[in-house]
Specification:
The complex is a heterodimer of chains A (about 80) and B (about 350).
Chain A lengths: L4 E8 L4 E6 L2 E6 L12 E5 L2 E5 L2 H19 L1
Antiparallel strand pairs in A: 1-2, 1-4, 2-3, 4-5
Chain B lengths: L9 H18 L3 E7 H9 L2 H4 L4 E8 L1 H4 L2 H11 L4 E5 L14 H6 L4 E3 L5 H8 L4 E6 L6 H13 L5 E5 L4 H9 L8 E5 H7 L5 H5 L3 E5 L3 H16 L6 E2 L11 H10 E8 L3 E10 L8 H4 L15 H5 L31 H8 L1
Parallel strand pairs in B: 1-2, 1-7, 3-4, 3-5, 5-6, 7-8, 8-9
Antiparallel strand pairs in B: 10-11
The chains are: A alpha+beta (about 80), B alpha/beta (about 350).
Amino acid sequence: MCIAFPGKIISIDNDNYAILDIGGTQREACLDIIDEQVGIGDYVICHAGFAIHKVDEQTAQEKLEFLKHLIDNEIY
Amino acid sequence: MKYIDEYRDPEIAGGLLAGIEKLSRQLARPVTIMEVCGSHTQAIGRYGIRKMLPDGIRLISGPGCPVCVTSVQDVDTALWLAAQPNVIFTTFGDMLRVPGTGSRSLQQLRAEGADIRVVASAADCIGLALENPQREIIFMGIGFETTSPTIAATVVTVQKKQLKNLTVFSVHKVIPPAIKALIDDPALQIDGFLCPGHVSIITGADAYRCITDAGLAAVITGFEPVDVLEGIYMLLRQLQEKEKEVVIQYGRGVKKEGNHKALELLEKVFIPSDARWRGLGVIPGSGLAFRDSFADFDALRKFTVPELASEEIKGCRCGDILRGIIEPPACPLFRKICTPNNPTGPCMVSSEGTCAAYYRYL
């Protein structure tokens, strides 16, 4: 039930609700819980109608590079 | 989809699997890993991860599906509340088919005429309360730390808007005390835990200290196949080390310190309470009750629920499955009487329930 999806913020209204693009589908998400500054273009993780986390894009990218390096150098 | 497709890359998954096989050979002993979260159970089933792993590595499912661990007593209370006159009873979709005493469910009650509605977000209840000022809206608040802050935020908004016709029946639960109960259970021998990624967005990493303090491994893990495989890889690596610490695989989602704003909201609205878990019994401090300053939003204070004679479902082994004692095929009802279309026990209801995942993917 803790299902959550990453979505891109495409607009934010005056009531602190954002419209997210989640793989081509648009969903509304309340920004009252998120504890970081977010703006249009940011990716957030959305759960039960609320954005709960701003995706750390740098960490996400570094992780994939790290995994490729690990697999090439330490595993195979 | 960005941040999803990359984590389904077959080459990376294959590499991690080779790494797991290598570490498993080095460890040269059987390893039992519990995935606490229902979303992990579903991902492991859906991507066939259990079958890919080397023989020495056993994955068992834990109590991390909120509807599955909701007690018969709480389901019966929900049924009573939903049957009261002038009430619109709302909840998340997974809750509708969870059986209470005598296999009665909210879905049955709805078919008999009760006004029971599914919402996708607690915040949807605000609109419902505004549109129906003469009716009482009761929201069944269910879920772990991922979900409970969304209910806390909704209650704070309702208080600001001075709405008087919306209350919450809180059956929220918190994960760490349940993990502690499993660690202390002598019937279980677990080497490490894949900790729930989305719960951890809110709680942060320190919530799982009880695992590493007990000398067991803990990896906060995401939900795509690469995440789960890397989580297992990191867990095996940790088993090779003497010192244990909670590590985060799901770095794009989880900060070590968690989400302060959400934690503050939880603290503001709720106070820890004892809660009854299906299968695990009453666990001290594992529930969330309303603080006195938010008593007006507590359905249990607004409505006087009588003593209800609750009874567990006969023959159902969900309790043992939720503790990781048995796997679903060991239950005599599994696949025979209990199926996703006609679930006898709660673990067959939600797609994240262990029995439903085994039924669908095994």
